[in-house]
Amino acid sequence: MKGKKHKQTKKQTRADITFHIINYTIFASLTILCVYPFYYLIINTISSNTLSANGVINFLPRGIHLENYKQVLQLKGLPLAAGISLARTVLGTVCTVFASAYLGFMFTQDKMWGRRIWYRFMIITMYFNAGIIPVFLTMKALHLTNNFWVYVIPVIVQPFNIILVKTYVESIPRSLQEAAQIDGAGFFRIFYKIILPTCTPILATVAIFAAVAQWNSFQDTLIYVTDQKLYSLQYLLYTYINQANSLAMMVKNSAGTGLNIASLATTQTATSIRMTVSVVVVLPILFVYPLFQRFFVKGIMIGSVKG
To answer: In order of start, what are the domains of the chain with their CATH numbers?
Structure first.
């Protein structure tokens, strides 16, 4: 009898079926709206550049080729810039995640000296900013201009991420820490052995935020860096996007500039350059996100709501 009852399913009413149809239609539409811009970029980068520039390519690629990617990837300085972006993304993400985890944990400990004062002081920095010029002068005084560490050090402490971790830690039963303290464990041991393993979902969420911000950032290069050896991939490609309209006009004057502009302009249009560069910048982070996606929803929900 129990088996038969278990196999029985609730018969869906007409209202239930209507709700599911509407629900699936709405979510399918939203999915298409989110995916189509990326699809549009990709099909235009592999289609005929002339057709792409004329706005003919909308749904299916035509005149498929990969010359756009071959020529963009041959731009001078691209491998070094990609290495800089990769290094800043890895180091910056690791440092931000560790700092957020440690400070988020310490702000939950009653024995921390001046805990409430330091926490409020940190929150204030979310609402007030000194401005670009004072920040630039500070970086210059700290010898961080034209220095790789200008990409990492200023963004290690992120108040929003610390708040997420703090709220998540507060949801962990205090009995775990109390049991460890009874066994003689100190704060650092509790942090490494209990807090870090337990906070994997929220730390993965913070890692996503930090990695995306580091990978996409180019304004810090624009403000603090003039040494071409320290250019990030995003800034280098940003300069090529800005030059896209004038590349064709500069073909005759490009000899000896070392920018590889001649070979770029003879086969590409301004539209194809912009789209190809956009795809090159976006694709790496699109491959990274699915690795952390399973932690994202759980981490952001638990880390943002207390109780």
So the answer is: 2-66 (no CATH), 72-228+279-304 (1.10.3720.10)
